[in-house]
C-alpha cells in the first residue's frame, strides 16, 4: 500500500498519466481522421457517419467523457511536470546547445498549448457552431437511404474551409499537432518502459510515421476544399419547405 | 594558439556571479582543457587575482569531477569525453570559449565552476547498494550471469556521476544518472533482493532533491562522457511501475 501511495506521489507516475492519456488521445485522432476522410466520399457518407455517431447515445457520451478525462489529465500532468522543470533550473545557461534532441521534443509545451487553444477553437467552430454560425447551420440534409433529415456536416465543413483564414488556422494547428505527436508517441513507450531492441525498432519510428499520416490525412480535407476536389453539395430539391424537420431548428436555412 | 575566455565567476554560494573575460595566448594544442585553465590560473595568481575554482581529481576521465559547460555543451565539444580528456586541439586559434558551471537547483554553485553534487550521493545512499553477509566471498562461478546482462550491468556501472546528464537536459533531470545506478545493480543476481525497494527509494530521493523530469529528449545520452544509454531510463520506468503495483 505504501509503495502505491509513493507511486501516486512520484513524478514517474505523473509521466505515466501523461503517456497513457496521450496514447488515448492518439487513438481518438486515428478514429477522428478515418471518420473525417469520409468527406471525400460525399455528403451521404459523412452525414450518415455523423448521424451514426449521434445515434450511439450513451456510448457516445462514454467516449466523450473518456476523451475529456484523458485531455484533462494530459493537461494537468503537463502543468505539473513543466512547473517542476522550471524550478529545477532557475538560472539559465548563457549558451546551451542541443545535442541529440529534436526540435519537436524541445517544444512540446508550446505545441501542446497551441493544440489546447486549437481544440477549444475547433469545438466552438464545428461542434457548437459559435464561430461561423452561418456555415454551421448550413441547412439540413435528407439522407438518400432513409429519407431522414440530418445536420449537413458535409456542407458545414466545406463552407468553413472555403474561408482561407479558417483553413490556414487549421493548417497551422495541424503542423503543431503533428510535431507534438512525432515526439509524444515514441516517448510514451519509453515512459511506460515498453522497450527492448526489437520493440524499439517500431516505437522509434511510430511517432514520426503517425505524425506524417495525421498531417497528410487531416490536411487533405482543407486542401481538398481549397482546390475544389471537395465541393459544396447542391441543394436537394425535396428540402423545400422542410424547415420544421431540420435539426438546425430555428436557425435552419433549408428554405 | 590564442583564446578569448568568458568564465563564470562567483565568490560563494550566496554571492551573485557574473561572467568575466580573459585573453590567453601561447596555448599549446597538446594541452588538456584543464591544463589551459591551470595556465589561466597561474597568470591570475601572478597578477594577484583569485584563480578560477574548478573541480578536478583523476584527470584521466574516470572520477567525474571536472564538470563544466564549455560553449554550451557539457564537457565540451568532443563526445564521450570528460573535460580533463578534452584537448585544446579541438579548438581553433582565436576561438571564444564560454565556460559555465552546471545549472540546476539541486547542484548549487559553491564557487566559480564548482557545484555541489551531493544530491547524487544522497540518491545513491537511498538505494544504490546491495546487502551481503560478511565473510569469505563465494566462488564467482556459483552465480551464473548471462553475458548480455553482465555487459548491460557493466555499461550502466560505467556512470561516473559527473552530472553531465543533468547539465544537458533541458529540464535538469537526473533520470539517466538514477537509471544507470538502478540498472547496474538490477541486472545482477546480487541486486535482486532490494530491486523493488531500490527503485522506489532512489526515485523518491531524486524527486525530493528537486531535479526536473525526463521528457525523453535524449540530450543526456549524447552528453554522457561514458555513453550511458537511455534504455536504462525505460528500464527504471518499468521497474518502478512493477515495484509500485506488485511491491
Architecture blueprint of SSEs:
The complex is a heterodimer of chains A (about 260) and B (about 250).
Chain A: H1 2-9, H2 11-36, H3 43-54, H4 58-88, H5 103-106, H6 108-127, H7 133-136, E1 140-142, E2 149-151, H8 153-161, H9 164-191, H10 197-226
Antiparallel strand pairs in A: 1-2
Chain B: E1 3-9, E2 18-24, H1 33-46, E3 69-70, E4 73-74, E5 95-100, E6 109-111, E7 114-115, H2 118-127, H3 147-157, H4 164-168, H5 175-186, H6 195-209, H7 219-223, H8 231-246
Parallel strand pairs in B: 1-5
Antiparallel strand pairs in B: 1-2, 3-4, 3-5, 6-7
Helix pairs in contact in B: 2-5, 2-6, 3-5, 5-6, 5-8, 6-8
Task: Please tell me about this protein's structure.
- The complex is a heterodimer of chains A (255) and B (247).
- Chain A has 255 residues and is an all-alpha fold.
- Helices cover 67% and strands 2% of the residues of chain A.
- Chain A has ten helices and two strands.
- In chain A, helix 2 (11-36) packs across helix 10 (197-226) and helix 6 (108-127) packs across helix 9 (164-191).
- The mean pLDDT of chain A is 90.
- The termini of chain B are far apart.
- Chain B has 247 residues and is α+β, with helices and mostly antiparallel strands.
- Chains A and B meet through helix 1, helix 2, helix 4 and helix 9 of A and helix 6, helix 7 and helix 8 of B.
Amino acid at each position: 500500500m505504501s509503495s502505491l501511495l509513493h507511486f501516486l506521489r512520484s513524478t514517474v507516475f505523473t509521466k505515466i498519466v501523461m503517456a497513457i492519456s496521450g496514447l488515448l488521445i492518439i487513438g481518438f485522432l486515428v478514429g477522428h481522421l478515418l471518420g473525417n476522410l469520409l468527406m471525400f466520399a460525399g455528403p451521404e457518407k459523412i452525414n450518415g457517419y455523423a448521424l451514426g455517431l449521434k445515434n450511439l447515445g450513451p456510448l457516445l457520451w462514454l467516449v466523450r467523457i473518456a476523451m475529456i478525462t484523458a485531455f484533462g489529465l494530459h493537461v494537468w500532468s503537463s502543468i505539473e511536470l513543466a512547473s517542476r522543470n522550471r524550478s529545477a533550473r532557475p538560472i539559465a545557461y548563457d549558451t546551451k546547445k542541443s545535442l541529440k534532441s529534436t526540435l519537436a521534443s524541445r517544444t512540446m509545451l508550446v505545441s501542446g498549448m497551441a493544440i489546447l487553444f486549437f481544440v477549444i477553437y475547433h469545438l466552438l467552430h464545428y461542434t457548437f457552431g459559435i464561430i461561423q454560425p452561418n456555415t454551421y447551420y448550413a441547412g439540413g440534409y435528407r439522407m438518400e437511404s432513409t429519407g431522414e433529415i440530418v445536420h449537413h456536416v458535409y456542407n458545414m465543413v466545406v463552407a468553413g474551409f472555403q474561408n482561407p483564414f479558417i483553413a490556414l488556422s487549421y493548417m497551422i494547428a495541424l503542423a503543431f499537432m503533428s510535431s507534438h505527436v512525432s515526439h509524444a508517441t515514441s516517448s510514451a513507450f519509453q515512459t511506460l518502459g515498453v522497450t527492448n531492441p526489437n520493440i524499439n525498432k517500431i516505437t522509434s519510428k511510430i511517432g514520426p510515421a503517425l505524425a506524417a499520416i495525421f498531417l497528410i490525412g487531416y490536411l487533405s480535407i482543407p486542401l481538398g476544399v481549397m482546390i475544389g476536389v471537395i465541393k459544396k453539395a447542391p441543394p436537394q430539391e425535396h428540402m423545400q419547405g422542410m424547415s420544421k424537420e431540420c435539426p438546425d431548428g430555428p436557425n435552419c436555412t433549408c428554405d | 594558439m590564442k583564446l578569448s575566455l568568458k568564465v563564470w565567476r562567483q565568490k560563494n554560494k550566496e554571492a551573485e556571479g557574473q561572467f568575466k573575460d580573459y585573453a590567453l595566448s601561447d596555448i599549446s594544442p597538446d594541452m588538456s582543457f584543464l591544463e589551459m585553465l591551470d595556465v589561466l590560473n597561474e597568470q591570475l595568481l601572478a597578477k594577484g587575482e583569485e584563480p578560477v575554482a574548478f573541480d578536478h581529481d583523476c584527470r584521466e576521465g574516470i572520477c567525474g569531477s571536472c564538470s563544466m559547460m564549455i560553449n554550451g555543451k557539457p564537457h565540451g565539444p568532443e563526445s564521450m569525453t570528460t573535460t580533463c580528456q578534452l584537448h585544446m586541439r579541438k579548438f581553433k586559434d582565436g576561438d571564444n570559449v564560454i565556460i559555465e558551471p552546471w545549472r540546476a537547483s539541486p547542484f548549487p554553485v559553491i564557487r566559480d565552476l564548482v557545484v555541489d553534487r551531493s544530491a547524487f550521493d544522497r540518491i545513491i545512499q537511498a538505494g544504490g547498494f546491495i546487502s551481503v553477509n560478511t565473510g569469505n566471498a563465494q566462488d564467482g562461478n556459483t552465480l551464473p550471469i548471462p553475458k548480455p546482462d553482465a555487459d548491460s550491468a557493466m555499461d550502466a556501472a560505467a556512470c561516473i556521476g559527473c552530472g553531465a546528464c543533468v547539465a544537458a537536459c533541458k529540464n535538469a533531470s537526473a533520470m539517466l544518472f538514477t537509471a544507470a545506478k538502478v540498472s547496474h545493480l538490477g541486472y545482477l543476481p546480487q541486486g535482486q533482493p532490494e530491486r523493488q525497494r531500490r527503485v522506489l527509494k532512489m526515485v523518491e530521493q531524486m524527486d525530493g532533491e528537486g531535479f526536473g523530469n525526463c521528457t525523453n529528449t535524449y540530450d543526456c545520452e549524447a552528453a554522457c562522457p561514458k555513453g550511458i544509454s537511455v534504455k536504462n531510463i525505460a528500464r527504471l520506468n518499468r521497474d518502478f511501475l512493477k515495484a509500485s503495483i506488485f511491491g
